[in-house]
Amino acid sequence: MSANNALQVSQGFLASVGTQMFRYYEDRIPRSGPVLVVSNHRSFMDAPILMAALERPIRFACHHYMAQVPIMREIVTDLLGCFPLEAREKRQQGFFQQALHLLNSSQVVGVFPEGTKPMVTFTQPDHLGNFQRGFAHLALRATTPGTLSKPVTDLTILPMAIASLEEVNTSAVPLKLLSLFDPSEPLFDQSGWHPLVIYRRVAVLVGRPYWISHQQQMEYQGKQAKKAVRELTHYCQTEIAQLLRQGFY
Length: 249
Hints:
This protein is an alpha/beta fold. It has a single domain, classed as Glycerol-3-phosphate (1)-acyltransferase, CATH 3.40.1130. The chain contains 9 helices and 7 strands, in the order H-E-E-H-E-H-E-H-E-H-H-E-H-E-H-H. The protein has helices at residues 3-17, 46-54, 72-79, 91-104, 117-120, 134-143, 175-178, 214-221, 225-247, and strands at 20-24, 35-39, 59-62, 83-84, 108-111, 156-174, 193-206. A 7-stranded mixed beta sheet has the order 1-7-6-2-5-3-4, with helices on both faces. Helix 3 (72-79) links the parallel strand 3 (59-62) and strand 4. It is globular. Residues 35-165 form the Phospholipid/glycerol acyltransferase domain. Pfam families: Acyltransferase. Keywords: Acyltransferase, Transferase.
């Protein structure tokens, strides 16, 4: 399925569920060019919510197991256009390769830096977990001359917050069942059920865009690479946390 069809599927899905979406700071949304969307994550609805809010198709990196489970696989890959991460030993390399290819073709890539835990462990709507730093490495590697044969030009990093104002919480499948599809994921080696969060009313707040500076590019090429990665990760996590507080005010 084409990326534009994925946007139509997302919009149609939200309409069929009856989800009310309120969008704030939409003037910050880039209308063209490569974009890396960074967002919090609690529900299977997050991908279609963000696509509908951005009004652009977004290619999301999704967990390895989602491409292994029947029905879920067809939804996330065929309908929504997500690209699943590979098994743990090849995960980082595969993520960089696929995401860089998409960004170089001026597409929008979406990442959920909190990882899998918020999806399989029920959390409160205002909760924000620690961010993994893979997305920051991606952004810096994509834009820094010398790290790639073809750097991505004019990459916008866009933090976005999803604030659930009203939702229904139920259960999907036993977590141990998912371990059959991805035995390497320790979160599946526990009792309990995979939560299913359905938004009824949701606010989507667009953060202040971020662009990699020349100084950060120089740092990433040298001995201060960790500093550049830490700064970008901190910016996105802080921006999303502030937006979440606004969403629940």
